[in-house]
# Entry
Amino acid sequence: MGVLDDLLVGQSAPMREVKRLIELAAPSTTTILVQGETGTGKELVAQAVHNLSGRKGKLVSVNCSAIPAELLESELFGHEKGAFTGAEKTRAGRFEMASGGTLFLDEIGDMPLALQSKLLRALENRKIQRVGGGIDVDVDFRLVCATHQNIEADIEAGKFRADLFYRINVFPITMPALASRAVDIPALLAAMMKSGKPNHAGQPIFTEGAHAEMMRYPWPGNVRELRNLLERACLLFPGRQIEQADVKNNLLRIKVPEPVEEQEALWAATTNLAPETKTPDNISEVSEVPLPHPSHYQEWFSFFDNIDLRRHLQDVEIVLIEAALQKSDGMISAAADSLKLRRTTLIEKMKKFMIEKPAN
# Structure
């Protein structure tokens, strides 16, 4: 499994099963559907299948969600000269480019319904017609598709053809979420540091405690999020040892240890965007706290060039949950009431963000 181990890092049970399935399917011409959450590395399965297939052609990849619908047909099937405005010469599409090799259609669930019938014909007949052309072109390709969507639900909603789904779902492979193979995190970090550009100040060193902290994290962004964490670690802790507390306080929550001026400026800007409110003399009479209107955030980019919206909202959640727990002396039910959440929902969020009850 040397080639597979280099490409698909990890020896957890879910990853061993993925590698077993790849070794079974790769030598054949069977169509493969790779399913899994965003950021799990589904494209690596396509690369592994191609590498082990023995096919002499190239691996040609197309992200169906990244190409506008009106251009995707020409991108996949090519076009003849004069087929549309701007088509000054005949152009081969990705199917022809992948002839003799492997065609990887990423995010197949985003393919427009109108194109799905043309893809089905290409799969069944191994022939395509360029846009604006009437001549069949023979193509010899191995197809690997990937999606993070529930295609069966899309079929029920009329967004995806059932006959196409059955045609591409011949040999399904599921890439596991990182949280379900957390034991692979140390190996993944080591592989990323080995393949990455060396930091002039030296790479960070993760302790066992740091690894343990990362293994408890739910990793909603999967391996892609882990790669981003490593990049932050290289910037914040170059050549230094990273302890468990560093991971919890400075990496997973994106809090810069020192200096804190940037974070303070961020929250100051957020505060400045909120509407001015007058505090009543008797605050107990207030039933609803006036919240900033969404329109006030239109001025955000007067202060900053960009914002990581998901992380910003996550930080707001963390601050409010910790404040509610502090106010209620660690009583989860009371804190949940303050936040207008179900008790079970608050417990789930505390686990997700690794928030502990304050010590009495």
